[in-house]
Design a protein that fits this description.
Layout: H1 2-11, H2 29-46, H3 74-77, H4 83-112, H5 116-127, H6 139-142, H7 145-157, E1 160-161, E2 165-166, H8 173-188, H9 191-215, H10 221-251, H11 287-293, H12 305-313, H13 322-339, H14 352-356, H15 371-392, H16 396-403, H17 405-413, E3 436-439, H18 447-452, H19 470-479, H20 485-494, E4 498-502, H21 503-506, E5 524-528, E6 532-537
Helix pairs in contact: 1-4, 2-4, 4-5, 4-7, 5-15, 5-17, 7-8, 8-9, 8-10, 12-15, 13-15, 19-20
Length: 542
């Protein structure tokens, strides 16, 4: 665990250099996710029943369910308040997500029967895979450690390993409960990753039941009780998370992804061999390949060439049986083909299309994120090869060379991810009357004003999510001409009481002219400050 923390600090550096002022990748999604953790902690501390009624996207209901919530990180949100605390919290969790990915993969392959060096390799490959660099702004995608850790706990609880099979004397019911709880926690981080994980758990359960029916090994009542309790926790967590999302889907039918919507984010096969631009080792070498892919981060999905090579070796030399190797290889191929989405064979209709019809998959916009499973399966294959090599080597220099293999996987994860400074909130925002609208506004920039509101969480029209509600779109369009009679009428009808125009931020945007607006003949008052202009709108008399 200490090694995982040190490794995570290294590969995410300089995240922890200025955690109060900078944020990894960009100031778009990360600032929004920093707000998410702050909001969930605030709601749990003040009014848990209003958890899903966030202060953003006013006046919409269930606005916290407009995108993946990272709800599992809510305990961290209980610590501190305000934008600085939100930034520090986000940066720490960003590092811990990498550490947990290492720990989870290490624990899984060790439980399956691999050695320590193989465990370190699997952990490093899973935590430092190059494709993760293209997702540096998506914490919900980086938070995959719970997947591997839950599978490790469940396998341990059931006394099962890939190498030795089911051993009743190794059954640990407490670990089984812990595994189901870890799975429920992972699901609470977001359905984009959680839905495929849930179906994968279901497939594991089906395989386990079929295997038990064939051989009828002894099962203790304690284990069955543990599974019953754990499964209840998992299903209850899933139901709790699903309810507001189903309500949102009913209210906004266009949140469901059509088959055509998947075209942009579906990677071709070469995407699984293409590195993101921020990789120190591979970034420049794949510039032309990324250009052919359209420079889309969602389709640069290299799991790592070290991992590919060792997994290929694992097909011919491994501690796993030949049958297990073939099944793992088939699963790797299947994960890639499914991950290709609409770029799969035959337009993907008979591959990812089979998943698309399952409940929940029509809300996922990025089939390529199934590369998580590609990486984990490759890591298991590679761990079998490394363990086999370690058992055969008796000459110390070669043994030391094997111990360096995890460093090759780490090297592929070294990066030049930018860490831009986050703009400070204009002081007047702390007292502006809510509901408010901060300009400029937009789907890619509203994370900043969302972060700014984490001191008192005033209701605001601003909000960034997986889709744009119609009333928010109308307010943004109207604000392009603010302040004039029509825009003021739209915003007053929406319920807006304050429009805060951030002087520096609107420069060069379509909202730049709002700085110079006049209030003559309009039901509003203008207040000038050095950092912002505040327009106070008279409420509509009802």
């Amino acid at each position: 665990m200490l090694g995982a923390l040190a490794l995570a600090s290294l590969v995410t550096w300089p995240t922890l250099r200025h955690p109060t002022r900078t944020i990894p990748s960009d100031v778009g999604d990360p600032t929004m996710q920093a707000w998410q953790m702050a909001w969930s902690g605030h709601a749990l501390r003040t009014d848990p029943m209003s958890l899903w009624q966030a202060n953003a996207f006013y006046p919409e209901a269930n606005s916290f369910a407009f995108t993946d919530t990272l709800l599992g990180y809510a305990p961290a949100g209980l610590i501190g308040s305000g934008p600085v605390a939100a930034l520090v919290r986000y940066n720490i969790i960003f590092v811990l997500a990498v550490a947990l990915a290492f720990i989870g993969a290490y624990a899984l392959v060790r439980q399956l029967g691999a050695g320590r060096v193989a465990g370190a390799l699997a952990g490093a490959a899973f935590a430092c895979a190059p494709w993760r660099l293209a997702q540096a702004g998506h914490l919900q995608v980086l938070s995959t450690g719970g997947i591997a850790l839950a599978l490790a706990m469940l396998a341990r609880g059931h006394g099962w390993s890939l190498r030795h099979g089911y051993r009743p004397d190794r059954v640990r019911p407490g670990w089984a409960v812990a595994g189901w709880c870890a799975a429920a926690w992972q699901l609470s981080l977001g359905f984009g990753i959680g839905v495929p994980f849930g179906y994968a758990l279901g497939l594991v359960c089906v395989v386990a039941i079929v295997a038990w029916l064939r051989h009828r090994p002894p099962l203790t009542r304690r284990l069955l009780l543990a599974d019953g309790i754990g499964l209840t926790v998992f299903l209850a967590g899933a139901a709790f998370m699903a309810r507001p999302y189903l309500q949102v889907a009913e209210q906004f039918p266009y949140v469901r992804r059509s088959w055509q919507d998947l075209t942009w984010t579906s990677p071709p096969l070469r995407g699984f061999f293409t590195s993101p631009s921020t990789s120190i080792v591979w970034g420049d070498l794949f510039a032309d390949a990324r250009a052919d892919l359209g420079h889309r981060g969602e389709v640069s999905l290299l799991p790592g060439f070290t991992l590919y090579a060792l997994a290929a070796l694992g097909l011919v030399l491994s501690i796993w049986s030949v049958r297990q190797r073939l099944l793992l290889a088939a699963a790797v191929i299947a994960s890639i083909v499914f991950g290709m989405g609409t770029q799969g064979p035959g337009g993907g209709r008979l591959t990812y299309g089979l998943l698309y019809v399952l409940p929940g998959f029509d809300g996922i916009r990025t089939p390529g994120r199934l590369v998580i499973w590609t990486t984990l399966l490759l890591a298991v294959l590679a761990a079998g090869a490394v363990t086999a090599l370690a058992q055969r080597v008796r000459w110390r220099p070669i043994g030391l060379a094997l111990a360096l293999l995890p460093l090759l996987a780490v090297a592929e994860g070294l990066n030049t991810t930018p860490h831009p400074p986050v703009p400070a909130a204009p002081p007047v925002l702390a007292t502006a009357q809510a509901p408010l609208l901060v300009l400029p506004t937009g789907a890619t920039i509203d994370g900043i004003p969302m972060l700014w509101t984490t001191d008192r969480f005033p209701t605001m029209v601003n909000g960034a999510a997986a889709f744009t509600p119609q009333r928010q779109a109308a307010a943004r369009t109207a604000a392009l001409h603010f302040p004039d009679a029509s825009s003021v009428a739209v915003l007053r009808a929406t319920g807006v009481r304050s429009v805060v125009v951030v002087r520096d931020a609107v420069v060069g945007t379509p909202y730049e002219t709002t700085v110079w607006g006049t209030t003559s003949g309009l039901p509003l008052t203008r207040v000038d400050t050095p950092e912002a202009v505040v327009y106070l709108l008279d409420p509509i008399e009802r």
